[in-house]
Specification:
The chain is an alpha/beta fold. The protein has six helices and twelve strands.
C-alpha cells in the first residue's frame, strides 16, 4: 500500500465487531465486514484502520466499488504482506477479531471532468503496484468506458506474480477497458511490454486529441510525474494516494 498518514487528519475510529478476510485468487486480497454503518455511497476511497495493540492507525485504499460495499456490507482491500508491517498483522487476524475503522474518506474520482463520454472518447489509465486498488474501484464503478472509443489501462508490476487482479482482466476488458500489462523484471518467457509504464506508453506513440483525452494516474511518484508530462500536463502529483484525473488541457 502507499501510506499517506502525514497528509490526512486523524479521525475518530469505530470498532468493527467482526472481521472476515478472504484470499480470493491471491493472498493480497482481504475483506472486512460487517461495516455497513461506515459506508458512504459516494466515491470516498480510503479509510483509517487500527489493529489491536497497535497505537498508530494506517491508511488503506478501498478496492471495492461503493455499490458493492453498500450491497455486501463489506470493504475489500489490496494489501502486500511484508514482515513487521500492518499488512502482516492484518493477514494474521481471525474471524471475530475486533479492529477499529473510520468512515470512508477522501474526494475520490471527479468523473465529471471526463463527461460526457462523447466529448472525452480517450481515457488513459496508469497504475503501478498496489496503485491498482483504487483503479479497480473506478473501473468496476463504471465511467462509461463502453461508450468511449479508446480506453486503456497501462498496469505496471515487477512480474506476473506481483500483478494483482489478473482474474478480473477479462471482465474489465469486456466493459471497454484495454489492459496493457507492463513488467519491470519479467522472466524469459514474457513477450509483452517490459520496463516502466511511462516508457511503454511512449513506445506506443499514440496520438490523441488533447481536447478529448483524460488521464487517471495512480502509483509511484516517478510514474505520476513522468506520466503527467507525457500527457501534456507539466504537473505530476506528490501525493501517491491521490488520483490525478485531468484532461490534456489541464482543466
Amino acid at each position: 500500500m502507499y501510506w499517506a498518514a502525514c497528509q490526512f487528519p486523524f479521525r475518530s475510529l469505530t470498532p468493527s465487531p467482526s472481521i472476515r478476510y478472504s484470499r480470493c485468487s491471491s493472498p493480497r486480497y482481504h475483506r472486512l465486514d460487517p461495516i455497513s454503518d461506515l459506508i458512504n455511497q459516494d466515491s470516498r476511497r480510503y479509510l483509517q484502520l487500527r489493529l489491536p495493540d497497535v497505537e498508530k492507525p494506517s491508511f488503506l485504499a478501498i478496492a471495492s466499488p461503493p455499490s458493492q460495499s453498500a450491497s455486501t456490507g463489506a470493504f475489500e482491500f489490496l494489501v502486500k504482506k511484508v514482515a513487521g508491517s500492518t499488512a502482516e498483522l492484518l493477514c494474521g487476524l481471525k474471524k471475530g477479531d475486533v479492529v477499529e475503522l473510520t468512515q470512508a474518506m477522501g474526494n475520490g474520482f471527479n468523473i465529471d471532468k471526463i463527461d460526457p463520454p462523447e466529448d472525452y472518447p480517450t481515457v488513459l489509465i496508469f497504475a503501478t503496484g498496489s496503485g491498482i486498488s483504487p483503479i479497480r474501484s473506478l473501473i468496476e464503478s463504471g465511467f462509461g468506458a463502453d461508450k468511449r472509443s479508446d480506453v486503456g489501462l497501462y498496469f505496471g508490476a515487477r512480474n506476473l506474480r506481483r500483478m494483482a487482479y489478473q482474474d478480473r482482466f477479462k471482465d474489465w476488458e469486456s466493459s471497454g477497458v484495454k489492459i496493457v500489462p507492463v513488467l519491470s523484471q519479467p522472466d524469459d518467457s514474457w513477450t509483452g511490454e517490459s520496463g516502466y509504464v511511462q516508457a511503454a506508453f511512449a513506445r506506443a506513440k499514440q496520438i490523441h486529441s488533447p481536447k478529448g483525452t483524460g488521464a487517471v494516474i495512480c502509483g509511484q511518484i516517478q510514474m505520476t510525474e513522468k506520466g503527467g508530462s507525457r500527457h501534456g500536463s507539466g504537473e505530476g502529483t506528490r501525493n501517491r494516494a491521490d488520483i490525478c484525473m485531468r484532461n490534456q488541457e489541464g482543466v
